[in-house]
Amino acid sequence: MDQELDYHALRAALEWQVELGATEAIGDVPVDRTAIPASAPKQAPAAASGTPDAADPPPVSDPVQQALSDARVASARSETLTALREALAAYPHCELRKGARNLVFADGQPGARVMILGEAPGRDEDREGRPFVGRAGQLLDRMFNAIGLSRTDPDPAKGLYITNVLPWRPPQNRDPRPDEIAMMMPFVQRHVALVDPDILVLMGNISCQAALGRKGITRLRGQWTEAMDRPVLPMFHPAFLLRQPAQKRATWADLLSLQAKLRGLS
Question: Does residue 15 fall inside a structural domain?
Fold first, then answer.
């Protein structure tokens, strides 16, 4: 027989349930305590968690590698020097372009037997949009005129073609960074291939670093080597010769070596 519970018994039972963690006596919906709970559905990870999922887009590639990949594609598609210049002008990854006045592409005679690869434009070059036009450029012209070569001579046998590793002036004429050199090298290599000179002259440390992967122009100058499928001659940069005129003697020896090499290749 059921027994009625008095007030004190009911209160004690309620207090016991509260101590066990009960927070409400009646829920909004009935609960069948005897039913087996269904398995919880799998939930997709929160978007903010950063956990990759099969449906997620692929991760963004490294910016430097993306810049290099785009440079390779753009340069490979350039069938002419005009197209290569346009590809450089449209290339968005090099931050130097934002602070430069002009794209400094090249000067001289396409098809010349000798191609000069300088480092980067300076203030005068940035202003005029041509490489080697300041004091260093005037010295360069005198140097090569002494062995019968000129950027203004239309004869490929006597002409010069001049460009730089970088087409935009670095701020305050600082040295180019390795990532800047790397993203420009596909354009440089394509540039050399389109001009197709007999000999490539590397002016200064940065040019040697870009084309040969080596620095130390004092050791490298005057030593013939090969790069980009042609003979290469490292030389002192004319800007260095303006600061160190005693090194002009070594440069004259390099110019005579260049002249002899051209005769040997004729």
Answer: no
